[in-house]
Design a protein that fits this description.
five-stranded parallel sheet; alpha/beta; globular; Rossmann fold
Length: 432
């Protein structure tokens, strides 16, 4: 990783490259996904099975598409006690956090005869997408918890999980055990764009859902983008990001490890440190050079750091906060002497991690907040996956005749101003 001194042209150029990094799709990718979606819309199960056989499991059939209760029961006997303990702990923490997000319906009245309010209702059905994870060898259990728990707390009655099967047509037992833990009993062995299409359009085997949540590869993301509007989605998420603000109190080994924890995700991932200490920058660079050689995914991490990594040295921490707000990272760590003193200055970040013993990984798995976060600068206007993604709000309005007579003239005036005579007449006819 290169050290940049800010302000300078080279530092500003690097910041702009990272800050302006948008999630983009090639025309070929878009056309491929669009064809898959249309195929599933027209041909349903037959299209789903065709893609599942071609890309995942050659022996998949319509009858074996849905995970059976026997498969779920068998899975729970294949996982060890340590996993079950960690699963219980993580689910409990995530559940406790998301319970604080519940919105309530409300009604207000006044003396002039109006009743106003808002009804909060859960969506009827939610689709939870769980990536396959290297052919099922690295089950992304946390994705099950982060998607299903807020949906359940919102009150969603039907939760559907889709995840790519292994070549043998099975789902990793850790994923099935996690699904059972959070109350999912409708699970299908499909992934990628055809899984998103099946959830959005419905097939003879899979009833459609109202909202789809969960991370995925570029084909999953593009499918969600195309279908947004026909079905609700959580967000359009891109490659992972981390930005660390560090002062002279930061442990360079900690900083390096945390930067690499995101760089190993994807060659397009972004890992940035901003510090007011030249010595910390040099020490972090050395630590990264050493630690990256110990990673099984060192090639991916190396490309990520080369393309979208940076070590910035700034005059002070206030400048670091300003730059962080401009970049609006998915994950923002404050490895400074008094991290709580800087909370008020942070406006744009998916999640904020405070202090040397709060690495981003604790948020990925067990702390409680959701790890499905806005990326590519979208933290400027969007938020983490939450209970509200699985609810809808309906306005409630009642007017008595007294209240109606009071406001009628103003309503007619505004309607006529907008050139909507029928609107105005719907009020005027009640005043005659």
């Amino acid at each position: 990783m290169k050290i940049y001194i800010y302000p300078s042209k080279s530092a500003q150029k690097r910041i702009s490259t990272i800050a302006n990094r948008e999630l983009s799709f090639k025309k070929k990718e878009y056309n491929t996904v669009a064809r898959i979606l249309e195929d599933v819309r027209k041909n349903g199960d037959q299209a789903v099975i065709k893609y599942a056989r071609r890309f995942d499991s050659p022996d998949m059939t319509i009858d074996s598409l849905k995970v059976t209760s026997d498969e779920i029961d068998a899975a729970s006997r294949q996982v060890d006690k340590d996993f079950l303990h960690a699963l219980d702990n993580a689910a409990s923490r995530i559940r406790s956090f998301h319970r604080q997000q519940q919105d309530k319906s409300w009604i207000t009245t006044d003396k002039t005869g109006t009743v106003l309010g808002q009804l909060v209702n859960p969506m009827d059905a939610a689709g939870i997408y769980v990536p396959g994870g290297q052919g099922g060898q690295t089950p992304l259990v946390s994705s099950v918890l982060m998607g299903a728990i807020p949906a359940r707390i919102a009150g969603v009655k039907r939760m559907v999980m889709v995840t790519p099967p292994t070549g043998q047509g099975i789902v990793n037992p850790c994923l099935l055990t996690a699904a059972a833990k959070v109350g999912i009993n409708e699970i299908y062995k499909i992934g990628s764009a055809w899984a998103i299409a099946a959830l959005a359009y419905g097939t003879d085997t899979i009833d459609k859902v109202d909202v789809i949540a969960g991370p995925g590869n570029i084909y999953v993301t593009l499918a969600k983008k195309i279908l947004a509007g026909r079905v609700g989605i959580d967000m359009i998420a891109g490659p992972s990001e981390i930005l660390i603000i560090a002062d002279c109190s930061a442990n360079p080994e900690f900083v390096a490890a945390d930067l690499l924890s995101q760089a190993e995700h994807d060659p397009l991932a972004s890992a940035i440190m901003i510090t007011d200490s030249n010595s910390v920058a040099r020490a972090v660079k050395k630590a990264i050079d050493r630690q990256v050689t110990e990673l099984s995914r060192q090639d991916i991490a190396g490309r990520s750091l080369k393309n979208f990594g940076a070590l910035l040295v700034v005059p002070d921490i206030a400048t670091a906060v300003t730059i962080a707000n401009k970049i609006a990272p998915e994950h923002l760590e404050l490895l400074v002497d008094d991290p709580f003193a800087h909370i008020g200055g942070i406006r744009n970040a998916g999640a904020l991690f405070l202090g040397p013993y709060t690495p981003e990984a604790v948020g990925d798995y067990i702390a409680g907040p959701n790890h499905v976060l806005p990326t590519a600068g979208t933290a400027r206007f969007s938020s983490a996956l939450s209970v509200s993604h699985f609810t809808k709000k309906t306005s409630l309005i009642h007017y008595s005749k007294t209240a109606f007579d009071r406001d009628a003239r103003d309503i007619i005036c505004l309607a006529k101003t907008e050139g909507l005579d029928a609107h105005a007449n719907s009020i005027a006819i009640r005043t005659r």
